[in-house]
Design a protein that fits this description.
- GO terms for molecular function: hydrolase activity.
- It contains 18 helices and 21 strands.
- It is an alpha/beta fold.
- The strands form six sheets. Strands 3-4-7-8-9-10-11-12 form an eight-stranded parallel barrel. The chain has a five-stranded antiparallel β-sheet with strand order 15-16-17-21-19.
- It starts with a strand and ends in an 8-residue tail after the last helix.
Length: 613
């Protein structure tokens, strides 16, 4: 358990003794901890819904109303909220001990700190800043309490881990541990001048991950967090840096990556790669191994363009929402290999994706040079906050469109914490140093935007009740014998009209997704990102009647209708608004024709339809 109470980074960058202001550590005996028979959860990946959050920012705002803001304990207090939302896993931004002082000089002059935590220095210690009593070396117990509480609630814990670089940075960086005890073996350095650090991470150094000693260190560390902390998986920051050999070149079969995959102690842990690094290596669809999931950056970019209204992407959207078979199927991998996301901690929040065309990062102290310039965003007609009711309504509809598409897609969906109630960072797309109200979740937004929060909760429930959205294998278009229809059928504006695959201006998709067995409802999905309204004819499926489930153009509570409140459509025709997503579920006609005593009263009680109709 480490302490940074005396730590001064600047002193550790200079020659000489810095003992008076160095980090401190305690060896902790936690063998008596009572796990209460807890074990890591075994939630199948096709059923997973991941929720990426920052431990500090989730509860640090006063509106969180927790006893211990910004800590593991504070997050425990919010578990009932996570249960109500319906997610299955939290993915915690880095919680291994990191250097909060690791920021550029101009940023430090503004009294800003490293907030996200991608500056690890002590890989076996939870971060002291997230503990209630770190001076008592309670780090391990407090983190274990969080994991145990999450597991009791049925929620898995995935850690965002940073093994591609450390907080020691390059030659001018501080000496904390590895520079002092491993010589040049821990980092990639120049072949002829070991004082020169190779930087494939944008952070000053690159860990020499495929050196035998370093590889053993990394795997042992991961096994420790599974064995001693009961975590359920890991997301690897800039994972492609781990595929580089000791000469910096990309290896076809990097030992550390395969060692992680083949470790028996990690056999049940989820492994997720951010399959790129900061020097142009991009391995989405080709990251080494078979067990690894990948942050699907191609899904993010394609869906953002579709939501923005770009023409010519509908064909690729169809591939992405069906699990990105072009990336994974030829390798014998599955739809669960892709972690689908539209927003994450790095970049615009969902609210800002539809509120800003440009980044606004001046508060970071780097003259707006930092952060991504290619955001694929659409401000809906005004840059930033507006009083224009039409623009505000479109932004709300676009947020619902994004959630609907994400949760209807095959693969593993990941949501960014706060998006479900439209958290804004005021256009800052790189809040790595903003440990303040710009980044902290304001829980008043969950009341102000309760309609969006409800929509997300109900979309998660819709996903969970349809096994067809959680298929383990790719769709084929083949007929299902138990239903007499194909697993997926694509349509134009009418069921007998083929899709406009060859129309480069097409911004409309419609398809029918068959239930996995005879008892499952089918889904008919329409995604209209054009500026035109369409009169849609629904397909005729024997012995089934369609009910409206989702229409993002409608106001709450009519925008999404729980199954027990749905009513059969009187006619198989529906008017689809511009820039909207519409979903229909069907019901077996035998239920409607069942005339047993009390049946219609039961349906009326369920509000499927009114007895007077």
């Amino acid at each position: 358990a480490v302490s940074n109470d005396l730590w001064r980074r600047a002193a550790a960058c200079l020659p000489g003794d810095n003992t008076s202001c160095s980090m401190r550590a305690a060896v902790v005996d936690e063998s008596a901890y009572d796990w209460e028979d807890d074990t890591p959860l075994a939630i199948r990946s096709e059923k997973a819904i991941i929720y990426e959050l920052h431990v500090g920012g989730f509860t640090r705002h006063p509106s969180a109303k927790v006893k211990h803001p910004g800590t593991f304990a504070g997050l425990i207090e919010k578990i009932p909220y996570l249960q109500q939302l319906g997610i299955t896993h939290v993915e915690l931004l880095p919680v291994m001990a990191f250097d909060e002082q690791d920021v550029p000089p101009h940023t430090a002059e503004l009294n800003l700190h490293n907030y996200w935590g991608y500056s690890t220095h002590s890989f076996f210690s939870p971060h002291p800043g997230y503990c209630v009593t770190p001076q008592q070396a309670s780090h391990i117990r407090e983190f274990r309490d969080l994991v145990k509480a999450m597991h009791k609630a049925g929620i898995g814990v995935i850690m965002d881990v940073v093994f591609n670089h450390t907080s020691e940075a390059g030659a001018e960086g501080p000496v904390i541990n590895f520079k002092g005890i491993t010589g040049n073996s821990f980092y990639l350095t120049d072949k002829f001048d070991k004082r020169i650090f190779h930087d494939y991470t944008g952070c000053g150094n690159t860990v020499n991950a495929n050196h035998p000693l370093v590889s053993n260190f990394i795997i042992s560390c991961l096994e420790y967090w599974v064995r001693e902390m009961h975590v359920d998986g890991f997301r690897f920051d800039l994972a492609s840096a781990l595929a580089r050999g000791e000469d910096g070149q990309v290896m076809q079969d990097p030992p550390v990556v395969w060692g992680i995959e083949l470790s028996q102690k990690l056999a049940k842990a989820k492994l997720i790669a951010e399959a790129w690094d900061a020097s142009g290596l991009y391995q989405v669809g080709s990251f080494p191994g078979y067990r690894w999931g990948e942050w699907n950056g191609m899904y993010r970019d394609t869906i953002r363009r579709f939501l923005r209204g770009d023409p010519g992407v509908a064909n690729e959207v169809a591939t992405r929402i069906c699990g990105s078979s072009d990336l994974y199927q030829h390798q014998g991998r599955l739809p669960i290999s892709g972690i689908n996301f539209i927003t994450c901690h790095d970049g615009f929040t969902l609210n800002d994706l539809f509120s800003y065309n440009h980044k606004h990062n001046a508060a970071n102290g780097e003259s707006n040079r930092d952060g991504c310039n290619n955001n694929l965003s659409y401000n809906c007609g005004a840059e930033g906050p507006t009083s224009n009711t039409a623009i505000k309504a479109l932004r709300h509809k676009q947020a619902k469109n994004a959630f609907a598409i994400l949760l209807l897609s095959h693969g593993v969906p990941m949501l960014l914490a706060g998006d479900e109630f439209l958290h804004s960072q005021q256009g800052n797309n790189n809040c790595y140093c903003q440990d303040n109200e710009l980044s902290w979740l304001n829980w008043a937004d969950s009341r102000q935007n309760a309609d969006i929060l409800r929509f997300v909760q109900q979309m998660i429930q819709l996903r969970k009740r349809h096994a067809s959205l959680m298929r383990r294998n790719f769709l084929t278009g083949a007929m299902l014998e138990h239903r007499g229809i194909a697993d997926i059928t694509w349509h134009g504006l009418t069921p007998d009209q083929p899709p406009e695959w060859n129309n480069s201006e097409n911004r409309f998709l419609a398809y029918t997704l068959a239930g996995l067995d005879a008892e499952d409802a089918d889904l008919h999905v329409v995604m209209n990102m054009s500026d035109d309204k369409h009169s849609l004819h629904l397909p005729n499926i024997a012995d089934r009647t369609w009910c409206l489930a989702v229409d993002t153009s409608l106001k709450a509570p009519h925008d999404i209708i729980p199954s027990e409140l749905q009513k059969p459509l009187k006619k198989p025709v529906y008017n689809v608004d511009s820039r909207s997503v519409v979903v229909f579920e069907n019901i077996e006609n035998r239920l409607l024709n069942d005339a047993s005593p009390g049946f219609f009263s039961k349906l009326a009680h369920m509000k499927i339809f009114d007895l007077n109709e």
